[in-house]
Amino acid sequence: MKILVIDDDAAVRKFIGITLKQEGHEVLEAENGIEGMKKLQESKDISLMITDIIMPEKEGIETIMDAKKLDPSLKILAISGGGKAGPQSYLVLADACGVNATLAKPFSGKELLLCIEQIR
Ligand SMILES: [Mg+2]
Question: How far apart are alpha carbons 87 and 117 in whole angstroms?
Fold first, then answer.
């Protein structure tokens, strides 16, 4: 499937991209919510959005709400390493916004793929 990965950390985007491409998925990348929303609007066939929460320009929670407004059927996986508060508080917030799954950083490729398998 076509998957959009939004994270301001290039190393995380690269890791997720490699992991997903190995499984035959098509991957689009964006480094913040503004860029991510642009990609969502450009390609209507994205079925899963994986988004970080803490990002400059436009953060994840706002991005999740805008993406759901644009495409209510879009599946969303929120990922976060958290700030000072740790990942859980942000992921609970994402969960409250109606995401399909959350994953705390750091995670392995195997954990990521398992999580995606459960969403589909
Ligand atoms: Mg971040």
Answer: 22
For β-strands 75-80 and 48-52, DSSP reports them as parallel
**Span 93-102, pLDDT tens digits:** 888 889 999 9
| Segment 55-79, tens digit of pLDDT | 998 899 999 999 999 999 999 999 9
Instruction: Output the CA 10–ligand 1 centroid distance in Å.
Output: 10
The residue extents of the domains of the chain are 2-119
Within 10 angstroms of residue 65's Cβ, the number of other Cβ atoms is 12
| Neighbouring residues of 76: CB distance < 8 A, sequence distance ≥ 6 | 48, 49, 50, 51, 64, 67, 68, 98, 99, 100, 101
Q: Give the Å distance between the CA of 55 and the centre of ligand 1.
A: 4
Q: At the topology level of CATH, where does 2-119 sit?
A: Rossmann fold (3.40.50)
Which pTM was predicted?
0.94
